[in-house]
Amino acid sequence: MKKYVLILAAFFTAGISGCKKDYLSLETNPNTPSATTPQLTLAAALNATASNVVGQYNYYGVWAGYWTTSGNYVPNSTINQYQFTPTSFQGDWTAWYANLTNYNALQVLASKDPKLADYQAIAMVMKAYGFQVLVDQYNDVPYTQAFQPSTIVFPAYDKGVDIYHDLGKQLDAAIALMGTAGAVAPGSDDIVYQGDMSKWTKFANTLKLKLAMRVFTKTPGDELVAKAVATESLGYIDESSAAIVNPGYSNQTGKQNPFYANYGAGPDGNPSANNVYFRANAFAVNFLNNNNDPRAARLYAPNTPGVIRGNIFGDPNVQTNSFTSAIGPGLNKSASQGQPILGAPESLFLQAEAVNSGIFPASSTGLSDGSIANGAAAGSAQALYEGGITASFEDLGVGSTKALSDAAALAYFTQSTNNIGWTSSGNKEAAIITQKWIALDGYFNFEGYNEYRRTGFPALPSSIDPAAISPTLPTRIPYPQTELSTNAGNLSKEGTLNYFSSKIFWAK
Predict the structure, then answer these.
(1) Which stretches does DSSP call E strand in 271-338?
(2) Which of 175, 237, 232 is nearest to 203 (CA)?
(3) How far is CA 282 from the centre of its chain?
(4) What pTM value is reported for the model?
(5) N or C: which end of the chain has fewer CB within 10 A?
């Protein structure tokens, strides 16, 4: 089917025009091997991933307790009342399969030349990244039969658990390819790490750990857990190796950072439509304020000096924007900011959970300020936990300098408060996931909601809208109308789904 083969120009326009190099010119189609280069395909695909991560998931931001819809508009029945249909979220599916088509094209192209081993490896890592997102949204999706339009018009669906297991194998294969002797290292066309394959190795290994921890809660003996243990020594993303996309964003039309363009302001300085439409959620605001968390003023913009307010999710009497806070300056730093696709806080909290769960042995790699030494594979659970909080404070710019951010983080996590101070938290897993939930606010709304579905932490509120069709939050979203229209035979094999009880395979 065309959706598994073609790249839509719309997914490239923003990213391509935002890049300084002509290898992102629309004059060349990245999906036509005879008319493209690995450099062109890699840069365009990475930039499309950055757009996908921030452009599709505002509804998860609401369900995860971070955001609400504005009182300046008619209530959103899709988000607030769960009145969604197969057309409601189909952009998610289309965007990711378009992006994955690019990575698949790069993998095929690069596999024909040993000198392009690093390009092939990056493509494999990013395919794993994208397919994990699809599985986490839909569970079963076309995988083994995708990207074969000449022979398979209607691709079958693979089980989500089977896809996860193969992603682990693909990541191992990608790691083995990285740094192949004689290979051409990617340069400026690698708009994440500029060809530093040691950092790509950490990225891949962090994805492996994410796969492992996602299945561990329900199936601790899963083979993915053993695979994660086997490559622990390779290390993970830390503050110096966060995966951040930046092809040359600037404050010009079509060239802005995708988060800023969506939730900040246009080149003329006027707030974007989503900046006006999405406001702070009272649940997150109250949690932050009640626990003396200075990140509140970075995640949400005060209406008046020092005042941060949010709406209650689904409240029919929702307040207008003059009383509620917009998305804050710690997220909307500038139009030229890089776009994270996997950050240090998430990596450190993954490691903290792995050590706390007994998957990894603890070691003494923590530093006195709560940071972690040199991307250590495993520190003590406490050091990794406090390191995750510290990295979150740094990312949001709680202090004007790194030292001030670190000092603020130290003052915060030394409080004798449950789910903040390590020794004061009776349930360590709840503390880790709660702090991870805060750190994922904004840039990674979908991941915050995933962690809630996986662990139940924190206990998120459902909509109080009287017209809501369920008293509980959704457990998944519907398959898109495009699948119903073009691949109904295979889709029908998935059976009847209930969006409030049908779960992703790893969910509790």
Answers:
(1) 278-280, 300-301, 326-327
(2) 237
(3) 23
(4) 0.92
(5) C
Q: Partners of 68 in the beta sheet?
A: 279
Q: Within this chain, do residues 371 and 402 fall inside the same structural domain, yes or no? A: yes
Retrieve residue 183's tokens. Answer: 């290979």
CB atoms within 10 A of CB 223: 14
The end-to-end CA distance of the chain, in Å, is 34
381 and 485 assigned to the same domain: no
Handedness of CA 271, 273, 274, 279 (dihedral sign): positive
Stretch (H or E) spanning 162: helix 160-177
484 and 376 share one domain: no
- Residue 172: give the domain boundaries: 2-195+470-494
Residues 476 and 420 in one domain: no
Clarify whether residues 428 and 488 are in a common domain: no
- Asked if residues 118 and 179 have their Cβ atoms less than 8 Å apart, the reply is yes
Cα–Cα–Cα angle for 329, 375, 41, nearest 5°? 70
* Res 378: pLDDT: 52
Pairing of strands 157-158, 326-327: unpaired
Nearest CA to 300 out of 283, 313, 314 is that of 283
Query: Which residue ranges of the chain lie beneath pLDDT 50?
Result: 1-34, 364-377
Show the CA angle centred on residue 104, arms to residues 102 and 106, nearest 5°. Answer: 70
CA distance 119 to 179: 10
User: In a 10 Å sphere around its CB, with 0-12 CB exposed, 13-18 middle and 19+ buried, how is residue 159 labelled?
Assistant: middle
Which residues, in sequence order, are CB contacts of 301 under 8 Å at separation 6+?
308, 325, 326, 327, 328, 329
Distances in Å between the Cα of 490 and the Cα atoms of 61, 479, 483, 484, 504 are 31, 12, 9, 9, 18
Q: What is the pLDDT of residue 160?
A: 98
Residues in the chain: 508
Collect contacts of 30-33 with beta carbons under 8 A, ≥24 apart.
30/102, 30/105, 30/106, 31/5, 31/6, 31/7, 31/101, 31/102, 31/105, 33/105, 33/108, 33/109
User: What's the CATH number where 386 sits?
Assistant: 1.20.120.840
Helix and strand totals (H; E) in the chain = 20, 8
Are 387 and 366 in contact by the 8 Å Cβ rule? The answer is yes
| CA distance readout (Å), 166 to 5, 125, 127, 477 | 21, 12, 11, 24
Task: For residue 172, give both structure tokens.
Answer: 């191992």
Q: How many structural domains are present in the chain?
A: 2
- The confidence score (pLDDT) of residue 37 equals 87
Looking at residue 376, its pLDDT comes to 42
